[in-house]
Amino acid sequence: MTGDLLSGVTAPPARVRVQLPLLLPEPYDYRVPGDMSLVPGSYVEVPLGPRRLFGVVWADGDWQGERVEERKLRPVMRAIDLPPMPEITRRFVEWVASYTMSPVGAVLRMAVSVSAALEDPRALTAYTRGEGEVPDDLRLTPARKRILEILSDGPPRLAADVAAEAGCGTGVVRGLAEAGVLTTVPMLALPRFPRPDPDANPKTLSGAQRLAAEDLTAKVSAGGYSATLLDGVTGSGKTEVYFEAVAAALRTGKQALVLLPEIALSAQWLDRFAQRFGVRPAEWHSEMAPPLRRHTWRAVAKGEARVVVGARSALFLPYPDLGLIVVDEEHEAAFKQEDGVIYHARDMAVARAHLGRFPIVLASATPSLETLVNAENGRYSRIDLPSRHGGASMPDVTLIDMRRKEQAPPARQWLSPVLREALSQTMLAGEQGMLFLNRRGYAPLTLCRGCGHRLQCPNCTAWLVEHRLSKRLQCHHCGYQAKSPDACPECEAEGSFVACGPGVERVAEEVATLFPDARIAMMTSDTLSGPRALREVIEQVKDGAVDLLIGTQVMAKGHHFPMLTLVGVVDADLGLAGGDPRASERTFQLLHQVAGRAGREERPGRVMLQTYMPENPVMQALASHDRDSFLAVEADQRRQLEMPPFGRMAALIVSGEDEGAVDAIAAALGRAAPRDREDLTILGPAPAPLAILRGRYRRRLLIKGPKTVSLQPILYDWLTRVEVPASIRVQVDIDPYSFL
Ligand code: ADP
Ligand code: ZN
Question: Where on this chain does Zn(2+) 1 bind (predicted)?
Answer without folding.
Answer: 448, 451, 488, 491
